[in-house]
Write a structure and sequence with these properties.
The complex is a heterodimer. Chain A has 3 domains: about 190 residues, Rossmann fold (3-Layer(aba) Sandwich), CATH 3.40.50.2300; about 140 residues, 3-Layer(aba) Sandwich (Rossmann fold), CATH 3.40.50.2300; about 70 residues. Helices cover about 50% and strands about 15% of the residues of chain A. Chain A has 16 helices and 15 strands. A 7-stranded mixed beta sheet of chain A has the order 8-7-9-10-11-14-15, with helices on both faces. In chain A, strand 10, helix 10 and strand 11 form a beta-alpha-beta unit. In chain A, helix 15 packs antiparallel against helix 16. By secondary structure, chain B is mostly helical. Chain B has a single domain, classed as Orthogonal Bundle (ABC transporter involved in vitamin B12 uptake, BtuC), CATH 1.10.3470. In chain B, about 75% of the residues lie in helices and about 5% in strands. In chain B, the strands form 2 sheets. In chain B, strands 1-4 form a two-stranded antiparallel ribbon. A two-stranded antiparallel sheet of chain B has the order 2-3. The radius of gyration of chain B is 20 Å and the shape is globular. The N and C termini of chain B lie far apart (about 40 Å). In chain B, about 55% of the residues are buried. The chains are: A alpha/beta, B mainly alpha. At the A-B interface, helix 2, strand 8, helix 8, helix 9 and helix 10 of A face helix 1, helix 4, helix 9 and helix 10 of B.
Chain lengths: ~475, ~300
């Protein structure tokens, strides 16, 4: 008797648990059975919720960058939801699960596990290489695709994880460009390197050092700080004694800005150069007038030179304020992931993962195509310099220029053709203007590309002339 | 040689900043035997308030001296209120609890303050308005700005002021009595709640001064700045002998000098084997050494003579 009672109770509990379990699940509902032929009104489309995890430091010294990343992702999600996409016959609602990893590798893995347990469909992030690399193993083991908009350390994609992608040039590419820029354009013979001992800062500094040595430069000293420091007087004083031409810092703006300022007050005459982590408006704010004339690099080409880039910039600024740094890249990361879902016609991680590698997506930060490792193909690097308290674009280096120009010319040709077709079809006067504008726009695109890539300028001219 | 002098000066400035913050730690510890881990965050609040006020008045045409004074006054007032509230909410209810409990509420308070500051002032870095002269003087080939001279002087002045307050005034006598034995002090007619509130209020006012100085020197303020600063200052206070006011000053300056010389010379001394990222190793080796041989710190004295 009592045995029976217990077992029935166990059953009830088990049922309750399984019910709870069902309630928690938010997996896509199965596709509906085909509508009966006679039914005049089709049944309402089923709706699936696709949850994308986003991880960046939302607290701590890099919180401003983390929030910027999150805003980039949120903007993409909002736009996608407004479009009312349908994937696999179901209406898709995107949901951003934003997490905070405090830029701390330990916290990064905890958050990654949390997202895996929550069964997100994909992950955008993390921000820092130091958190992205350990987290990527957790996503790989769970088969969850991951696209980072800002983790640039080459190791991230070299671990053989099929789930790891990034939409930004890696540090090998960037370090090489920075090194060559320092050695040639900045005339650096003796160079001092400082890094913040994070996977990003150290990785970039190592690549920079290699490039300097390859270019025949000399590393006078290599110094270190950390990503929470504010006082650099001691290492800068040591650097001053070495009388260097260029000081390179591998790290973020929160240290780079004060560092440039302290360089000036200590009377270090060298030029300051930093990577993408310091390429922000915050850097200028923090360094004050000491920022004038200093250099930074940023993967990709300036936003206003990208198709749709300016529109994105304006919309973002109106909604969230000034872009700090990686928001456009993160926006693209979301778009690339959703684009893959569309092509796979599925929101299931396992189904759309193979499609990510085949991406060919025109984003606002770059044309996104991946190599077999998951790295961005032909990542270009742009150099900037502070002029009158603003980062001013100087030049774009690398990024297989010939290919970029070819693309631009192709786009231009298509635009001209479209314009011509339009001319033929509609009223002459109005459309003539449009055609001329179209042609002008096309020429502009080609010209911009040519400017950006001097080495291939001739190819462009030939192509434009041919038309 | 001028590089060596420059490193000594760097160390002195950094050390004075640590000392400014350490004074607040040591004073509360001296009176109450409590480590107020939220002190670093009070420094941050001070910096933020001072910065906001100075930014607000920046274009009013007031002389720089008045600007700083207004910023400092506002910061001091807000910090005092914050310090008073912290003590009332987080420490007073736990005065008879085991020692670990207030330590945990202290950490809790510091997280709350940090997040509050993040909500109020945002996640972005705030640059200190460029109102101070940036020209630097040259002494024996080393450079120092007038602000940095001021920091060293103010740290010393505050230390002397505190010592006078505690050793020469009526309030100080009540503080010392409370520190020695709260129950007996109460029996002698000392309102110990009031005295402890006073201690926190004064400690927080010191934090406001430190906050202004730190943010002006590095021209940066951020809701997260109090954490590392608090940790280093706490180390400095322990090094000098926590609870001892001259010890906080000594510990701060020593820590600054060790860090600065460590970062400057560790690479050359070890032939490139250790780099400047090992500067903290120097500092903490010294700390361990001091604590092994003198557990109460360099000039920390017997418990009854604290403060």
């Amino acid at each position: 008797m009592s045995y029976l009672r217990i077992s029935s109770m166990t059953l009830a509990v088990a049922a309750a648990i399984s019910l709870i379990g069902c309630g928690q699940k938010e997996e896509p509902k199965p596709a509906p059975a085909p509508a009966p032929v006679a039914a005049p009104v089709p049944p309402p489309k089923p709706e699936v919720t696709v949850r994308l995890g986003h991880v960046a430091p939302l607290t701590g010294p890099q919180a401003h960058l983390g929030k910027d990343n999150e805003n980039g992702a949120r903007m993409a999600i909002d736009e996608l939801n407004a479009q009312g996409l349908e994937i696999g016959g179901a209406k898709v609602k995107f949901d951003l699960v934003a997490e905070d990893d405090q830029a701390d590798p330990k916290q990064g893995t905890i958050v990654a596990q949390k997202l895996v347990d929550a069964k997100v469909n994909g992950v955008i992030g993390h921000l820092n290489s130091g958190t992205t690399i350990p987290a990527s193993k957790i996503y790989f083991d769970a088969g969850i695709p991951q696209i980072s908009g800002s983790a640039t350390n080459p190791k991230y994609t070299q671990q053989g994880f099929t789930t790891a992608f990034r939409v930004m040039a890696n540090d090998v590419q960037q370090g090489k460009v920075l090194g060559e820029f320092a050695a040639h354009q900045m005339g650096g013979k003796k160079i001092a390197i400082i890094d913040d001992r994070t996977a990003y800062g150290q990785g970039l500094a190592d690549e920079f050092e290699k490039a300097i040595l390859a270019a025949g430069g000399k590393i006078a000293t290599r110094e270190f700080t950390n990503d929470k420091a504010t006082d650099f007087a001691a290492i800068l004083t040591k650097i001053k004694s070495k009388k260097v031409d260029v000081v390179f810092y591998g790290g973020m703006d929160a240290q780079g800005g004060p560092m440039a300022k302290q360089m000036k007050s200590l009377g270090v005459k060298a030029k300051f150069l930093t990577g993408d982590g310091g390429c922000t408006p915050e850097f200028i704010k923090l360094a004050g007038e000491a920022s004038e004339g200093q250099f930074c690099s940023l993967p990709g080409v300036p936003l206003d030179q990208m198709p749709g880039g300016k529109a994105f910039g304006d919309a973002f600024t109106a909604k969230y304020g000034q872009i700090q740094l990686y928001a456009p890249y993160v926006y693209d990361a979301v778009m690339v992931m959703v684009d893959s879902m569309k092509r796979a016609n599925s929101v299931e991680s396992a189904k759309f993962l193979p499609e990510i590698g085949k991406s060919d997506y025109q984003g606002v930060s770059a044309k996104v195509q991946f190599d077999d490792k998951g790295d961005l193909k032909g990542g270009a690097i742009s150099m900037y310099q502070v002029k009158d308290g603003k980062w001013e674009y100087r030049e774009t280096i690398g990024g297989s220029p010939a290919e970029m120009v070819k693309e631009a010319v192709k786009d231009a040709a298509a635009a001209v053709k479209d314009a011509a077709v339009a001319t033929g079809e509609a009223a002459k006067d109005a459309v003539k203007g449009a055609a001329m504008e179209g042609a002008k726009a096309a020429a502009d695109v080609a010209k911009g590309a040519a400017d950006a890539t001097k080495s291939a300028a001739e190819a462009t001219k030939a192509a434009v002339e041919k038309k | 040689m001028d590089i060596f002098i420059q490193q000594i000066i760097n160390g002195l400035i950094l050390g004075s900043i640590y000392a400014l913050v350490a004074l607040g730690y040591t004073m509360v510890y001296g009176i109450m035997g409590l480590i107020n881990f939220a002190h670093g965050e009070v420094v941050m609040i001070g910096a933020m308030v001072a910065l906001s006020v100075i930014k607000l008045l920046e274009n009013s045409g007031l002389p720089v001296f008045l600007l700083l004074l207004f910023g400092l006054a506002a910061a001091a007032l807000v910090c005092m209120a914050v310090g008073f509230t912290i003590e009332r909410i987080a420490y007073r209810p736990l005065r008879r609890a085991p020692r670990l409990a207030p330590l945990i509420t202290a950490i809790g308070v510091s997280i709350v303050l940090q997040n509050l500051a993040m909500l109020i002032w945002g996640r972005n870095y705030h640059a200190f308005p460029p109102i101070l002269p940036t020209t630097s003087m040259t002494i024996f080939g080393a450079t120092i700005t007038s602000l940095q001279v001021a920091i060293v002087l103010i740290a010393a002045l505050m230390m002397i002021g505190l010592m006078i307050l505690i050793n020469r005034t009526r309030l100080g006598r009540a503080m010392r009595a409370t520190s020695e034995n709260p129950s007996i002090a109460q029996l002698m007619g000392v309102n110990i709640n009031q005295i402890i509130s006073f201690t926190f209020v004064i400690g927080s006012a010191l934090a406001a001064v430190a906050g202004l100085m730190v943010s002006a020197n590095y021209s940066i303020a951020h809701y997260y700045m109090g954490f590392m600063l608090g940790l280093k200052a706490f180390t400095a206070a322990v090094l000098g002998g926590i609870g001892n006011i001259a010890g906080a000053m000594l510990g701060g300056i020593l820590l600054g000098l060790i860090e600065s010389l460590g970062a400057g010379y560790i690479g050359d001394l070890t032939g490139g084997f250790l780099g400047s990222h090992y500067q903290d190793i120097f500092a903490f080796f010294v700390l361990i050494g001091v604590l092994v041989f003198r557990p109460s710190g360099l000039i920390g004295e017997k418990v009854s003579e604290r403060a």
